[in-house]
Amino acid sequence: MKRLKKIVLGLIITGLVLFTIYLYNLGQPKDREYPSFETEPEKNAGTIHDSIPLRDVVVVGNNWDGVITIFDPISYKVIKKISAMPDRKERFEEIYSGLKRRLAAGFIREFIGEGNDQLVDDMFTSKDGRYIYASRPSFADVVAIDVNSGEIVWRTKVEGLRSDHSAISPDGKVFLVSASTARKVHAIDVSTGQIIGGFESGDQPHENTYSEDGEKIYHASIGKVYISSPSLDFMKGDRWFQIVDANSYEILRRVDIKEKLDEAGFEWVDRAIRPMAITKDEKFAYLQVSLFHGFFEYDIENDKITRKLDLPLPEANKDLSYGDHLLNSGHHGIALSGDDKIICVAGTMDGYIALVNRENFEYQIIKLTDDPKKAKPYWTTSSKDGTKAYVSISGLDKVSVVDYALGEIVAEIPVGNHPQRVRNGQLRLK
Q: What HEC string does the chain produce?
């Protein structure tokens, strides 16, 4: 028996050593070209920027090439592209200089980035239109980039080894970012780049959404999404839905959504909330959960699941296994129209966009490709006026514009490599 234990222990140690070597090798710099843009240091930048009028824009983060695409919300023409990583050389040197960061970079690349470094995840424009604030997962940081010079104005490292989903306060003063491996959300003062507060989260903090009045933060953690098997659910960690005071960062409510799903008779559903959409009156939240093709309606006031919608599986996906899902995502991306009457859903694994009548849950499907796995719609944001939805089609490197009233795609904008987050904003562009 002792000999057997020694053999098993030896095999485990050997496996860990081999896995470490594997990740170390993955952490080698990738032999590829990244788009680059010249930085232009500006003299008297304040005067220059102030003389340029603010204009409405839409910004798109292209995760795999580190490019931020800026387009016009009326003409849908690309106005400008800027690099989210003008400091690319320094950051990669930093990663490869230490074993811990190197292993983390290899893990992010292989198991989260599908073989790619994650170079820009989420971003928002500054209130004065001079900067874009962006989270950069592989670099575990947040940066403020001058949109005209292309220079980094400040850089803030998050705790842990990866930065993720973000949000900006309605007054534009605070940038929230999830520190994925630290179980924390940081609040960053955008004027200085300093961390001024934050709150604890569950395992792998993810989505952040401010209430309309800026008084609350809605947050969710998703657990270790690189573990797919339901039998290993216990290894994924804590997955909570949280309502947080946006001023004090006190956690007002912490919910294990699994309990609410069980109470509603959905014991078989995963507990991790992916993207969410909150109604303007904050009475209801529409929640996408791991491994589920559809969404749930959560009554915030009464703290219970009230409805669910199963959206269709294409014939080619009938035998889709848990392991086939992208980081446990069935559907990843959800938004409400400006009048809260229509829900736009990104059918990530199913290759379609769904428009759902919020009142009766009737829906229409906008098919994107014949192969449901090719398109990979990955995020949904409603336009500033609420009449359209911008959907990032990550597999096809474009953003589709969906008209809520017409129920159809009215424009498609080529962007960069693997677009993810799409955000409305205002910028002063020369």
A: CHHHHHHHHHHHHHHHHHHHHHHHHHCCCCCCCCCCCCCCCCCCHHHHHHCCCCEEEEEEEECCCCEEEEECCCCCCEEEEEECCCCHHHHHHHHHCCHHHHHHHHHHHHHHCCCCCCCCCCEEECCCCCEEEEEEHHHCEEEEEECCCCCEEEEEECCCCCEEEEEECCCCCEEEEEECCCCEEEEEECCCCEEEEEEECCCCEEEEEECCCCCEEEEEECCCCCCCCHHHHHHCCCCCEEEEECCCCCEEEEECHHHHHHHCCCCCCCCCEEEEEECCCCCEEEEEECCCCEEEEEECCCCEEEEEEECCCCHHHCCCCHHHCECCECCCCEEECCCCCEEEEEECCCCEEEEEECCCCCEEEEECCCCHHHHCEEEEEECCCCCEEEEEEHHHCEEEEEECCCCEEEEEEECCCCEEEEEEEEECCC
Q: Of 318, 375, 322, 320, which is closest to residue 346 (Cα–Cα)?
A: 375
How many angstroms separate the CA atoms of 407 and 366, rounded? 8
- 98, with CB counted inside 10 A (0-12, 13-18, 19+), is exposed
Q: Which amino acid is at 42?
A: E
Cα(428)–Cα(148) distance, rounded to whole angstroms?
8
Given the structure tokens 């999404």, which residue do they identify?
225
0.85 exceeded by the pTM?
yes
Beta carbons within 8 Å of 229's beta carbon, 6+ residues apart:
322, 323
List the pLDDT tens digit at each of the 430 positions of the chain: 555 554 545 545 545 544 555 555 555 656 678 888 888 887 777 777 888 999 999 999 999 999 999 999 999 999 999 999 999 999 999 988 888 888 888 889 988 999 999 999 999 999 999 999 999 999 999 999 999 999 999 999 999 999 999 999 999 999 999 999 999 999 999 999 999 999 999 999 999 999 999 999 999 999 999 888 888 888 999 999 999 999 999 999 999 998 999 998 888 788 899 999 999 999 999 999 999 999 999 999 999 999 999 999 999 998 888 888 988 999 999 999 999 999 999 999 999 999 999 999 999 999 999 999 899 999 999 999 999 999 999 999 999 999 999 999 999 999 999 999 999 999 999 8
